[in-house]
Design goal:
It is a single chain. With 350 residues, the chain is mainly α. It folds into two domains: 123 residues, no CATH class; 199 residues, hpI Integrase, Chain A, CATH 1.10.443.10. The chain contains 15 helices and seven strands.
């Protein structure tokens, strides 16, 4: 007798248990809220796929199935993978997002097999998780110095842009994600022997970091303290409007060089034009809150701060793969410095 289970209720149970911390990471920690949100997006896609394809997805227990039926079950999930990824691409998704959805579906199957003790045959292990390396965009040190020191430019900005510039500069200094940055409270700013430190715990990695603040960051804090009546250091601004403001700031600074934008589907790169103006994307169009953390890390590396210290400040683990992307990014800068060294050496020898 073939035993089948509807997939959607199993996914819903998986999400419910994950959100209530009844399902944890391999290290025993709770799953991040963003991970739970991604699970919900996955569920939404699965429901829409069922609606469009008019197919009800089901999981079959492969215990005691004949070889012929096992092969049929394997074909069922191979066909699902191809049709479902086609559906995602038709919805406008690119490789990285598609890969995230597939990775989460694989996590559901692992849960079904381990927690529900349903032997699904392990066919989900053949669901290929597509990935694409997105270029890391950062400010160069000279650009960050411009935002810190150019008072004439600052005075040319409207008040709302001045406030966003302060948040942006602070974020480019302390290597925090936007969500963590906006949760900084006054108690997190500590004065020790005349020096100021920011002490926070990352929302994503749960790593505590202590960063000594430079004079310009302390000046931003002092300016905000005079007008603050809340526990949070920075006034509330939505991520959407913050991104819009820093794009406008970068445009006013003249950072409008075309850099283009490309994303891939099934490994095939596609050039993307600006969604409103049908032109190539400029640097100022692509800037977002993510650039703050990236800029902080790359500028520290460019200024020869040891990797171990940068990792401590940024909350990266010792073997973090994502951290090495920053090292690759600054390789050209390092190459230029080494070239200067060899040029001097060559001059001395001659």
């Amino acid at each position: 007798m073939i035993v089948e289970y509807p997939l959607i209720p199993l996914v819903e149970e998986f999400i419910r248990r994950s959100s209530k911390a009844k399902r944890l990471k391999a290290n025993g920690k709770k799953l991040a809220p963003g991970t739970i949100d991604n699970y919900r997006y996955m569920l939404r896609h699965l429901k829409l796929y069922e609606e469009i394809s008019q197919k009800s997805l089901r999981v079959t227990s492969v215990n005691k199935l004949s070889k012929q039926k096992l092969l049929r079950e394997r074909r069922y999930w191979k066909r699902f993978y191809l049709e479902f990824t086609d559906y995602l691409y038709k919805q406008g998704c690119y490789d990285n997002y598609t890969g995230t959805v597939i990775k989460n579906i694989r996590a559901v199957f692992n849960y079904i097999e381990k927690e529900k003790q349903i032997d699904t045959g392990g066919f989900h292990k053949e669901f290929y998780v597509v990935k694409e390396e997105i270029p890391v965009i950062t400010l160069m040190p000279s650009q960050l110095q411009f935002l810190i020191n150019n008072k004439e430019f600052e005075e040319s900005l409207a008040n709302n842009l001045k406030a966003c510039k302060d948040i942006f500069v602070f974020g480019c200094t302390v290597a925090l994600r936007f969500g963590d940055l906006m949760k900084i409270e006054w108690k997190d700013i500590q004065e020790i022997n005349g020096a100021y430190y920011l002490v926070v715990t990352s929302q994503k990695s749960k790593t505590e970091t202590r960063v000594k603040l430079p004079a310009y960051a302390v000046a931003i804090i002092d300016k905000l303290r005079k007008h603050s009546s809340t526990r949070e250091v920075f006034p509330y601004i939505s991520l959407f409007w913050f991104n819009k403001c820093i794009q406008k700031i970068c445009e006013k600074a003249g950072w409008c060089n075309e850099i283009g934008k490309a994303r891939s589907r099934r490994g095939v790169s596609q050039n993307i034009l600006h969604y409103k103006k049908e032109r190539q994307y400029r640097f100022c169009d692509i800037v977002s809150s993510h650039i703050m953390r990236r800029t902080a890390i790359t500028t520290m590396l460019m200024h020869n701060v040891p990797e171990s210290i940068v990792k401590k400040i940024s909350g990266h683990s010792g073997d973090s793969k994502s951290f090495h992307r920053y090292i690759n990014l600054v390789q050209s800068f390092m190459d230029a410095e080494v070239d200067k060294h060899f040029e001097k050496l060559n001059t001395i020898m001659m």
